């Protein structure tokens, strides 16, 4: 499935998808260009299940990411939005996905003091015009990465 075929995908549709459907969507196309600018964000914890709404209302309020990547080939930086504040800086560049071994956009928090001990990283890919789907991963003691949750960044709508 190419990006043109998934152009009807939006945040509301992603919230209704199962984990398997999100995995398929994440793998449908290439990584896309590294985004630049401000996005609205939504976490997708327990997607497609009755627990989704409960978890969404009880988790911290993540509002998206602000990318500073004027060159779509990278590298760049970003900062996350939490409860209306900007925090948790990261480096952004192309790399290999822990999910499927294909090219993706890496959001590397390894140099951020808030995450230095936890070793988090995000991976994102463009899934529709202005819309990126991602996963948050934690590095394990063996050096691999463990999946934590899905999220989406919508550059068509900024909060």
What does this protein structure show overall?
- The protein has 159 residues and is mainly beta.
- The chain has a single domain, classed as Lipocalin.
- Helix content is 14%, strand content 42%.
- It contains 3 helices and 9 strands, in the order H-H-E-E-H-E-E-E-E-E-E-E.
- A 9-stranded antiparallel β-sheet has the order 1-3-4-5-6-7-8-9-2.
- Strand 3 and strand 4 form a beta hairpin.
- It is globular.
User: Runs with pLDDT <50, length 5+?
Assistant: 1-7
Strand order of the largest sheet: 1-3-4-5-6-7-8-9-2
Q: Structurally, how many domains make up the residues?
A: 1
Question: Which structural class matches the secondary elements?
Answer: mainly beta
The CATH topology annotation reads as: Lipocalin
Order of helices and strands: HHEEHEEEEEEE
What is the highest CATH level, the class?
A: Mainly Beta
**Helix content range:** 10-25%
- Total strands: the figure is 9
Tell me the CATH architecture: Beta Barrel
Gyration radius (Cα, Å) is: 15 Å
How would you sum up the major sheet? 9 strands, antiparallel
| Mean of residue pLDDT values | 82
Essential attributes:
42% strand; 3 helices; 159 residues; 9 strands; globular; Lipocalin; mainly beta; disordered N terminus
Quick recap:
The chain is built from three helices and nine strands; from the N terminus they run ααββαβββββββ. With 159 residues, the protein is mainly beta.
């Amino acid at each position: 499935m190419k990006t043109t075929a998934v152009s009807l995908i939006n945040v509301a549709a992603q919230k209704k998808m199962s984990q398997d459907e999100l995995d398929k969507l994440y793998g449908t196309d290439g990584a896309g260009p590294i985004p630049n600018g401000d996005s609205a964000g939504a976490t997708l914890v327990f997607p497609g299940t009755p627990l989704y709404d409960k978890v969404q209302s009880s988790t911290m309020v993540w509002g998206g990411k602000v990318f500073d990547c004027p060159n779509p080939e990278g590298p760049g930086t970003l900062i996350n939005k939490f409860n209306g504040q900007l925090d948790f800086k990261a480096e952004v560049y192309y790399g290999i996905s822990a999910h499927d071994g294909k090219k993706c956009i890496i959001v590397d928090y390894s140099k951020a003091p808030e995450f230095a001990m936890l070793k988090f990283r995000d991976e994102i890919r463009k899934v529709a015009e202005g819309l990126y789907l991602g996963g948050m991963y934690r590095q394990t003691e063996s050096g691999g990465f463990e999946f934590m949750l899905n999220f989406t960044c919508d550059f068509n709508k900024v909060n």
